[in-house]
Amino acid sequence: MPRLINLDLDLVRTFLVVTEQKSFTRAGGRLGRSQSAVSLQIRRLEDQLGQALLSRDPRHVILTEQGEAFLPQARRLLRVNDDILAGLAADDVEGEVRLGAPEDFATIHLPTVLGAFARSHPKIALTVTCDLTLNLLDRLQNGELDLALVKREPLGPDLGVRVWREPLVWVALDPDFAIKEGPVSLVAAPSPCVYRKRAVAALEMDGRSWRAAYTSPSLAGQLAALRGGLGVTVLPREMVPDDLSVLGEDLPRLADAEIALLRAKGTAPAAAERLADYILAALDRQRHPTV
Questions:
Q1: Separation of alpha carbons 108 and 239, rounded Å
Q2: Which of 113, 125, 258, 279 lies most in the core, judged by the most C-beta atoms within 10 Å?
Q3: What is the CATH number assigned to the segment(s) 93-165+258-287?
Q4: C-alpha distances in angstroms, 178 versus 242, 243, 252?
């Protein structure tokens, strides 16, 4: 009979943080450990599994084939662990948490998550603010928020922990909108909205002229403009209402966008850390429902 090995969940958690941060140094900062201590923990985990999980060089950390296979299992292990502990300790944590999020993402993905969190943590008071990413970053910097979910560039500057990746599509009322002559009439949020930036960059790279036909910071306002036939916009595919059309290949392909979770500088209250961990786990379950 083969010898059974109990995985050290502390090592598993370190592995997940390294994969999120793509850096031993940044992972060490998140975990409060030195870069060498993080590297040692990963080697210990690899020894336990008998597999190389990460390919290292001085500037990059890349998952090996075995690491890719282990990643969803690692998430599942820690999800079970964290759910058990959250259930046992829910009544021990209290306070207020101020969370910021983009309106569109909050509307689709957060109500169920935050509702479940509120029920399991009745002593934690949630205050949620929906706004543009730039405003959320300002609020976080000014100490007005404890946590913020923000849109970011997938390959841009390191900004928080990625929690979501969004395939973007062109959307309009008329499915033949893309073949109309003249400048593309764009419906979008004000700059520096990531979706607006995606749309403009794609059109200009494709040599298509465009004009700002309708600008609104509100998702509801943008959808109303689309339903009025005023133009075309960019949305995550899963957010497209049934009465609007996803346009085909007559408009240029759009790069994905990302949602990241940021924490305020300094030591976060226990209630904020509890919510951050809960959001990361819940959104991970939405992205990997079979895991």
A1: 7
A2: 279
A3: 3.40.190.10
A4: 18, 17, 10
β-sheet bridge partners, residue 96: 125
Which residue stretches of the chain are H helix? Answer: 9-21, 24-31, 35-49, 65-89, 103-120, 133-141, 194-205, 219-227, 270-287
**DSSP state letter for 4:** P
pLDDT at 289: 42
Q: Judge if the upstream peptide bond of residue 192 is cis by omega within 30 degrees of 0.
A: yes
Domains 9-86 and 168-255 share a fold: no
Q: What is the pLDDT of residues 132-154, one digit of tens each?
A: 888 898 999 898 999 999 987 66
Per DSSP, what are the bridge partners of residue 169?
A: 235
- Span 273-291, pLDDT tens digits: 889 888 888 777 665 543 3
Tokens at residue 175, please?
């499915």
Report how far Cα 226 is from the mean position of its chain's Cα atoms: 26
217-221 long-range contacts (CB < 8 A, ≥24 apart) are 217/131, 217/132, 217/189, 217/190, 218/103, 219/103, 219/104, 219/107
Q: Using a cut of 0.70, tell me whether the model's pTM lies above it.
A: no
